[in-house]
Amino acid sequence: MNSVSDVWKSVIDIMGTKLTQTALSTWFDDCQAVDLLDERLVIYTPTPFKRDIIENRFSSMLSDALMDIFSCRFDIMILAGDELDTYMQHTPSAPSGGHDGDNFTFDRFVVGSSNKFAHAAAMAVAAEETKNFNPLFIYGESGLGKTHLLYAIRNEIKKKHPDFHIVYVRGDEFTSELINAIQSGKNVEFREKYRKADLFLMDDIQFIAGKTSTQEEFFHTFNSLYEANKQIVFTSDRPPNEITLLTDRLKTRFESGLLADIQPPDFETRMAIIKNKALEFKITLPDDVMTYIANNLTSNVRQIEGAVKKIMAVHDLIGDDINVTSVSKIIKDMFKENAESVPTADLIIDETAKYFSLTTEELKSQRRSRNIAMSRQTAMYLIRKLTNLSFKDIGNYFDGRDHTTVMTSVQKIEDLIKKDRKFNQTIKDITANINAQK
Question: On the CB side of 245, how many CA atoms lie within 13 Å of its CA?
């Protein structure tokens, strides 16, 4: 389901099960989807009045419908009136029926400490320097650039080998195509398409987990490609060993290549992304505005790009000056939470230390006694859960521990919460104490 029109039809079908026909016709008959970029759907409605109604009454329903289709959360951007023309003018090669990823190149990927290893690995694969990175498995949270790297590999290889049979598919699409092939008796054609690929790229591989027939078919597809020495690249929102309901034999094959993670961008990378997007959209952003955006939108590259685009659109249409005050109003709805409602890492550390009868110095220290280690891991988990800080940023609060240490600590606490009802209550108690102090 690559076409934006196909996606929109499915969204409307789902909305039709929740709304009366009158409501559906009134608000969505003259509404159209104009762009599908990674996990953001852009839709257009003729009047600002309808746009406001859809945003206020139906945005969560639209988001839920997209979650039903893709099993991941999408951002939704709603345009009205002349905003569509402005959007198209400032979106390079803006597609009319879904995008094909041609705009995703290595040159347009902003490299920082949070993604430089994954970027270097993708570059090496695209340059065909080695077959040691086969498969390449890129993982990280939504909106960090995994799909960008996947398309960049494809575009680079396609440029060098225009005759190559290159396959790009999402995990959920692979399942849908397999079901259709079985129902229509076209198993041979299905296998021919995938097993004869010169380059195989699968986005969101985690979507095949729990689907027995899909995993069985994909196991043989993988083996066929691997034995033919064809390059395979995957993306996922988590590493193989954390994909529940994925068969062990697939996990071991994914782990046999190179695993490369992408973390949320640090401040310097966020600033670079903002500057790049401002240049691309031909808009001048004062330094204090860029700093404001970088400080408030911390977890997601796509969200940052969307903020710059929205600032540009409002400025072009209304003509307001671009300053911190105006920008804060424009992008306030993009904040994950109100800044006032998000506890600081220091507050979380203080309350966790108090609960376990420790000083903050003890909790942040290198000491490894069981009580201190458990308290430290709990604080790391709560910071990750209650703030937008990256694993790397959290590590800086604990004597500069690296992001893998923080990831491991968070995972340990998550596992313990599932097994230990008493400890689960401990987490709730500490969280309540934190919320009481905000």
Answer: 10
Distance CA 50, CA 289 (A): 30
C-alpha dist (Å) from residue 18 to 23, 33, 67, 75, 291: 10, 20, 15, 20, 42
pTM: 0.58
Centre a 10 Å sphere on the Cβ of residue 63 and count the other Cβ atoms it contains: 16
Distance, CA of 329 to CA of 302 (rounded, Å):
19
* CA distances in angstroms from 341 to 147, 271, 335, 336, 354, listed in the order given: 32, 24, 11, 10, 21
Q: What is the dihedral of CA 338, 270, 385, 147, to 10 degrees?
A: 120
Return the exposure string of 306-316: e unless at least 16 CB atoms fall within 10 Å of the residue's CB, then b: bbbbbbbbbbb
Output the CA torsion sign for 411, 235, 42, 94.
positive
- Residue range 341-437 forms a domain whose CATH class is mainly alpha
Q: Which of 354, 357, 362, 335 is nearest to 432 (CA)?
A: 354
Segments making up each domain of the chain, as ranges = 4-89, 116-262, 269-336, 341-437
What number does CATH give the domain 4-89? 3.30.300.180
The verdict on domain 269-336 having CATH code 1.10.8.60 is yes
Q: Any idea what DSSP says for residue 260?
A: E
Q: Are 406 and 377 in contact (CB under 8 A)?
A: no
**Strands, E, within 198-331: which ranges?**
199-203, 231-236, 258-262
For the domain covering 116-262, report its CATH number: 3.40.50.300
Q: What is the 3-state secondary structure (H, E, C) of 13-72?
A: HHHHCCCCHHHHHHHHCCCEEEEEECCEEEEEECCHHHHHHHHHHHHHHHHHHHHHHHCC
Beta-carbon contacts of residue 331 (< 8 Å; ≥ 6 apart): 293, 296, 297, 307, 310, 311
DSSP letter assigned to residue 111: P
Convert the pLDDT of each residue in 226-265 to its tens digit.
999 999 999 998 999 888 889 999 999 999 999 999 988 8
Q: State pLDDT tens for residues 298-336.
A: 877 888 888 888 888 777 766 777 888 888 888 876 664
Q: Which residues of the chain have pLDDT under 70?
A: 1-3, 37-39, 70-73, 85-100, 317-318, 333-341, 437-438
pLDDT in tens, 30-64: 888 888 765 678 898 888 888 888 988 888 889 88
Strands 32-37 and 40-45: antiparallel
